[in-house]
């Protein structure tokens, strides 16, 4: 089952990059906020159909959870909005690596303090190095994108 989950996650990453690229292009014509809305409206309809046929949970349980847990829906909207805004300006890979750095940084902090009922995993030197190497990777990717863009504009 672990291999299957890794493959699903890999497929999710592939689809996220494709979605970012397509949404970035769409936003040039339709607008950033409009593209984000279209994505969520379409996703809502798609998920409603899936829930109708395959749902096993209780959607009304949202009325029973602590209010702070509902903040996740706004965080998802902000994530997509920021992605749609960034991709046309810095490219898919720079946007993706920046997202990953943000995820790693917040994940390290959440794990270190055990926020949101997560495991407590102390911040150690290996995690610091992982963050540092990701930032170095972002630097080289961003510089490479900038150089390629300048070369393309020169021609």
From TrEMBL:
Superkingdom of the organism of origin: Bacteria
Any Pfam family the entry gives: DMT_YdcZ
What species does this protein belong to?
A: Gracilibacillus orientalis
User: Which Gene Ontology cellular-component terms appear in the entry?
Assistant: plasma membrane
Provide the alphabetized UniProt keywords: Membrane, Transmembrane, Transmembrane helix
Keyword Transmembrane belongs to the record = yes
Recorded protein name is Transporter family-2 protein
Membrane-spanning intervals of the chain: 36-55, 67-86, 92-113, 125-142
């Amino acid at each position: 089952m672990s291999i299957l989950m890794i493959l699903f996650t890999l497929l999710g990453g592939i689809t996220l990059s494709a979605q970012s690229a397509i949404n970035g292009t769409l936003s040039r014509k339709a607008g950033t906020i409009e593209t984000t809305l279209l994505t969520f409206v379409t996703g809502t309809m798609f998920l409603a159909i899936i829930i109708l046929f395959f749902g096993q949970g209780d959607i009304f349980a949202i009325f029973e959870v602590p209010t702070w847990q509902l903040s996740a829906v706004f965080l998802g909207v902000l994530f997509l909005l920021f992605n749609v805004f960034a991709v046309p300006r810095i490219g898919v890979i720079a946007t993706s690596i920046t997202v990953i750095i943000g995820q790693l940084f917040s994940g390290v902090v959440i794990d270190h303090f055990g926020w949101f009922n997560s495991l407590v995993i102390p911040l150690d030197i290996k995690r610091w190095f992982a963050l540092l190497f990701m930032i170095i990777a972002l630097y080289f990717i961003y510089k490479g994108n900038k150089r390629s863009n300048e070369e393309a504009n020169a021609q």
